[in-house]
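This part of the workshop introduces the protein records we will be handling. A record pairs a protein's sequence with a compact description of its fold. Comparing a sequence with its tokens is the quickest way to learn the format. To make this concrete, we reproduce a full record directly below:
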Amino acid sequence: MNDIRKEYQRLQLFERVCMRCSGELQQFIFTLTRHDRFAMEEIYQNTMLGALRGLHYLRDCRRMKAWIFAIARAEARRYYAEILLKNKVLYYAEGEESYGYFIDFTKLVEDRETVQILISSLTDVERKLCEMHYFEGHSFKEISELLDLNYNTIRSMHIRGMAKMKNVCMKKNKDDKSRYCFD
């Protein structure tokens, strides 16, 4: 009877923690996914399910929030590992008794060409901003300090650069309705 009461109390605590930190957790995942809303929702759902399933393994209930965030980080890694695996194709080497994987480079080359076209539409400063933010992982605040520019200027430049790339992408894909950039 005591075990059932403890499990019930643990479930109640889990519900309270989830209600309190739901927005913060979604923002954390949104940042991990580099602002991909679909991936964020998928990872958030998997995080909540994983936390609920593994709730009885939690030793210290006072660290429940940190535990849930750790699960979210692991789910994000798992999500992107599955995407990477989907970009690989299984092959069988003839005459050999082995299977292996190779990456489907056609998709990667197509994406690289699209990115080169989009980036070439930016000014030098906008290109540097995108490089620092997306490839080096700097926040806008850090970039403003490094480039000695106002934070709002950096944000405006980013918005203008993204709008330029969206316009180029829309023009590029006008004939091809099946593929859109920046949905």
Helices lie at 2-32, 37-53, 64-86, 105-120, 124-135, 140-147, 151-172.
